[in-house]
Amino acid sequence: MKLIPLPAFSDNYLWLLHDEAGQALVVDPGDAAPVQDALQRLGACPTLGVDSEKAPQRDQFLPDSPPHSGTMGQEDGKKWAAAAHSQPTIPKSDRLLGLQLRAILVTHHHPDHVGGVAALRDATGAQVYGPARETVPEPLVRLQQGDTVEVLGLRFAVLDVPGHTAGHIAFFAPEAEGGPLLFCGDTLFSGGCGRLFEGTPAQMLASLDQLAALPDATRVCCAHEYTLSNLKFARAVEPDNQALRDYQQRCEDLRAQGLPTLPSTIALERAINPFLRTREAAVAAAAQRHDPAVNPADPVAVLAALRAWKNGFQ
């Protein structure tokens, strides 16, 4: 199995997974074009997973503007709305002579996650799977906690992870080749979490607790390259966290080479991500210093304070 983050927009990753037989799935395709290109290119050398002559260049990975932790301001909303309504129809003559797209997994309804779904589905016949309680382009198989999806020989468990949106889901494959695999959309980021557009701090805490309980080796495939800005905030919360310092240096080195910082792992996130560490004394104390009204013994209040702090953090 080859796992590939396809850059899109300024900081999205569209995760592509394919097997040696040339069968593929994609997660949260907000833009059809990068996926179409990858399906055609990668099919020529499926054992390598990437065509070295056409590999993404450094500036394809670097965001056009500074990363942020799940923000969706007015201009972002306009950009994503435009993307959702302007995806080109893929001509039949170009219909994917390389990898065959079998499934499209959708975690939530934001346009930068669903904008390319219809074009890819119509071109390939791929089955779309998405959240039961959100507006996603039809037709699709609607899913919720306890459901499973079988594709590419993998069984994905569906997890309800509301907070960023009300009906957000994640896909977890415990027996994936190379280690357990988590596609978590905009719920969990490396070093951070998504903004609370539709959910509550209590919902987000429960969602993050559920993800934090997954096996240590679980690969965390987030939908955005927000790691450096998240780690800058995390260092403000826990300046004495040595694991966090080491990880920040590693991520800075990766980005300097034009490489993704993702996937992360659950074990790493438990060690460095303040939003998974709301019950740690140092994190709770930092939240209280920022907002004296916070009860440091209440992890919901700590998470709410951290999220409000991060929203305005520079």
Folded structure, characterized:
34% of the residues lie in helices and 20% in strands. The chain has helices at residues 32-42, 58-61, 74-85, 111-114, 117-124, 201-212, 227-237, 242-256, 266-272, 281-290, 299-311, and strands at 2-8, 12-18, 23-27, 100-105, 127-131, 141-143, 148-151, 154-160, 169-173, 181-185, 188-189, 192-193, 219-222, 264-265. The chain has 314 residues and is α/β, with parallel strands linked by helices. Pfam families: HAGH_C (PF16123), Lactamase_B (PF00753).
Q: Largest beta sheet: what is the strand line-up?
A: 1-2-3-4-5-6
CATH topology: the name is Metallo-beta-lactamase, Chain A
Helical content (DSSP H or I, runs of 4+): 25-40%
Count structural domains.
Answer: 1
| Secondary-structure-derived class | alpha/beta
Residue stretches low in confidence (pLDDT < 50, at least 5 long) are 44-97
- Give the SSE string: EEEHHHEHHEEEEEEEEHEHHEHHH
Oligomer: single chain
Total of helices: 11
Number of strands: 14
Question: Alpha-carbon distance between the termini?
Answer: 39 Å
Return Rg in Å: 19 Å
| Global geometry | globular
Residue share in β-strands:
15-25%
Classified in CATH, the superfamily is Ribonuclease Z/Hydroxyacylglutathione hydrolase-like
Largest sheet: 6 strands, mixed
- CATH class call: Alpha Beta
CATH architectural category: 4-Layer Sandwich
| Mean of residue pLDDT values | 87
